Amino acid sequence: MHEKAATMFALDGRVAIVTGGAQGIGRGIAENLALTGAAVVIADVARAESVACETAIIAAGGAAKAIGCDMADEDSINDLVAATIDAYGQLDIVVNNAAIYPMSPIGEMSTDLWDRVLGINLRGVFLLTRAAMPHLKKSGRNGRLINVSSIDTWKSYVGMGHYDASKGGIEAFTRSCALELAVDGVTANVIAPGAAKTPGSLTVRGNLARERGDANTDAVDAEFATRIPLGDWASADDIGQATVLLATPAAHYITGQTIYVDGGLKLTL
Ligand SMILES: NC(=O)c1ccc[n+]([C@@H]2O[C@H](COP(=O)([O-])OP(=O)(O)OC[C@H]3O[C@@H](n4cnc5c(N)ncnc54)[C@H](O)[C@@H]3O)[C@@H](O)[C@H]2O)c1
Fold first, then answer.
1. Does residue 220 form part of some domain?
2. Strand, helix or coil at 48?
3. Is residue 37 part of a domain?
4. Is the Cβ–Cβ distance between 32 and 5 less than 8 Å?
5. Which atom of ligand 1 is nearest to the CA of 76?
6. In this structure, which residue's CA is closest to atom 36 in ligand 1?
7. Where would you tag: which of 38, 41, 42, 203 has the fewest CB atoms within 10 A of its CB?
8. Is residue 49 in a domain?
9. Which atom from ligand 1 is nearest to the alpha carbon of 200?
10. Is 164 touching ligand 1 by the criterion CB < 6 Å?
């Protein structure tokens, strides 16, 4: 009985790609997938941080491989999938986590910036999903597509029009994927993080602090934490562990869902 429970929550023998896995939430996802037994491909443009993540996972007894990938570039994405199959012979789990969020009010937003954000955050998700699909289908009931959106799809913020459009698009796209993949037993779900302190969110937090006329980001961060029902910002591990849950055999009947991992923040918005 205990053995069965352990198997339901284990990922031994699975191979996962995590885009943007070099730092922040992506690193939390990569490390927790590896802790649960999966071999993890860290797919990122940040070479040094990717190698640091690979080294940390291997030092902790896990399996990982850093493979450079630019989610803005179709060839790079196709090469990522080919290199993963070359290295491991299979691909069971894809986590589309990489995203950028440079703030800009819509009235001042250049077309180039819109295209860049949508290109990485949404077009890249489509391209990797399409390239990975035959392998996920081969994986059948072990196949998992997990796309990362944001609490922004519930509540918008000024300066995030392009980002919010990309994240809303991810949720609708993932529901389509869930329908298309269901026939093969593959599931597709969305993880929507609340607020997490990451290298990427540091800039946004700094901007928000300045907007409020408070240069002290720490004080603004601490005040924000009091508004989260569970009392603190999300850690990368919090998001990583929720992602693991969706990746495990125990979650094989959950598909087409958006799971908010936000400490209850959505309840207050
Ligand atoms: N931090 C938060 O509070 C928060 C809240 C909601 C949703 N999210 C989502 O979580 C995910 C991770 O966010 P984060 O805060 O950890 O970001 P981050 O900026 O700290 O890390 C993003 C990672 O993606 C990589 N990346 C950027 N452009 C890439 C590209 N073109 N190709 C490949 N990799 C690329 C970066 O090198 C980096 O390693 C994103 O999808 C973001 O939208 C974050």
1. no
2. helix
3. yes
4. no
5. 32
6. 20
7. 203
8. yes
9. 19
10. no
Alpha-carbon distance values, 81 to 17, 88, 96, 177, 180 (Å): 9, 11, 13, 18, 20
46 ligand 1 Cβ < 6 A:
yes
Query: Is 157 one of the annotated active-site residues of the chain?
Result: no
- pTM beyond cutoff 0.85: yes
Residue that has been written with the tokens 């040094």 in this structure:
48
Q: Is 199 in the pocket of ligand 1 (CB under 6 A)?
A: yes
- Residue 4 is predicted with a pLDDT of 81
Q: What is the dihedral of CA 221, 223, 226, 232, to 10 degrees?
A: 10
What's the CATH number where 169 sits?
Answer: 3.40.50.720
Compute the distance between CA of residue 192 and CA of residue 258 in angstroms, rounded to an integer.
7
**Which residues of the chain, if any, have pLDDT below 70?**
1, 3
Domain of residue 95 covers 12-196+234-261
pLDDT tens digits, 42-58: 999 999 999 999 999 99
Q: What is the model's pLDDT at position 1?
A: 62
Q: How many angstroms is it from 201 CA to the middle of ligand 1?
A: 8
Query: How many domains does the chain divide into?
Result: 1
- Residue 98 resides in a domain: yes
- Spatial neighbors of 94 by CB under 8 A, at least 6 apart, are 16, 17, 128, 129, 132, 136, 144, 145, 146
Averaged pLDDT of the chain = 95
Strands 187-193 and 258-261: parallel
Structural contact between residues 20 and 97, judged by C-beta atoms closer than 8 angstroms: yes
Q: CA-to-CA distance for 209 and 224, rounded, in angstroms? A: 11
